[in-house]
Amino acid sequence: PQQSGLVPAYSAESDSEDEGADKDEKEGRLTDWGKLALLPLNKEIIIEGLSLLCQTGKKLEHAFIKLDLKERALTDIVAISSYIHIRFLDLSNNYISDLSPLASMTHLLWLKVDRNSMTSFKEQPLSEFAFLQWLSVASNQIVDMEGLVGPSIETLILSGNSIRKISGMQSADFANLVILELRGNHLETTSGFDLPNLRKLYLAQNFIKRLEGLEKLERLSTLHLRDNQLETLEGLCSEMKSLQYLNVRGNAIAEADALRSLRFLIGSLKILVITENPIVETLVYRPTVLVLLPQLERIDKEPVSLIERTEARRTIRDDRAESATHTSL
């Protein structure tokens, strides 16, 4: 058999929930490509990157199923088309804009094309990858989602592009999608998601001003909206009955009334991150939040204390008693 190169372990990117170090979605390329000549892909380069010898569908036939071609200054990958047994492919940090040579790789399970020159999903062979479960096309030049399909994709990472509008994200085309990352794009609204099976949605570092269309995210457990332009949380809704973690750090929320829609999450939300909003500087906001969501376990980095929870419940009882008194009068 051909000598294989070493390939790092293949696993999904960290889906950090902003509990520690921040993730830079617009990091630069690891190599100064301006000082390198662009290289055509050839058999020797491919052989260097091959690893993990596995049995194919035929009884005694074996083939390498992992291929690492990152940081090769590649502009085209035509030579790859005959390697039909590849299941794990890393093409990151190149200059690739055309994935059509991958059309024959119908066994692909994992594909990483970060930091390349892709501008569109149209005329790309994504519909051929019936078994693809993990796809990352971060830090390219994608401006829209037309042509993007993935019936088996469970994790989809599109961070660091220039996408302005969510389109085509329908359950029929993404029935198995559970994690979606769109950090660092140009979105202004959350409208366009019809993904009832989605569990985690990362929309940090966009230009989002409005929460819309969230009623179809019935199984969403994590919603990350850090560093956007939200002035209100209007748009949160009772259909979001599975949401446990909400991060709106670094937005423009200034008034207590802007938090009222949090009451729709009373049955599920456990963690709320709201620091770096104007409201934090002008209001003792933790009691206000706890009156709306007395079941919260953590606000920002601090756990909710028993004293805070007891006081919030006392306030709720007093408010109800006062309301009942006014009603009887």
From TrEMBL:
**Region Disordered: what ranges?**
1-27
Q: Which residues cross the membrane?
A: none
Give UniProt keywords alphabetically.
Cell projection, Cilium, Coiled coil, Cytoplasm, Cytoskeleton, Flagellum, Leucine-rich repeat, Repeat
State where the protein is found.
Cytoplasm, Cytoskeleton, Flagellum axoneme
Highest taxon of source: Eukaryota
Q: Which Gene3D superfamilies match?
A: Ribonuclease Inhibitor
| KW Coiled coil (keyword) present | yes
- What's the name of the protein? Leucine-rich repeat-containing protein 23
Naturally occurring in which organism (per UniProt): Poecilia reticulata (Guppy)
Tell me the classification of the organism that encodes this protein. Eukaryota, Metazoa, Chordata, Craniata, Vertebrata
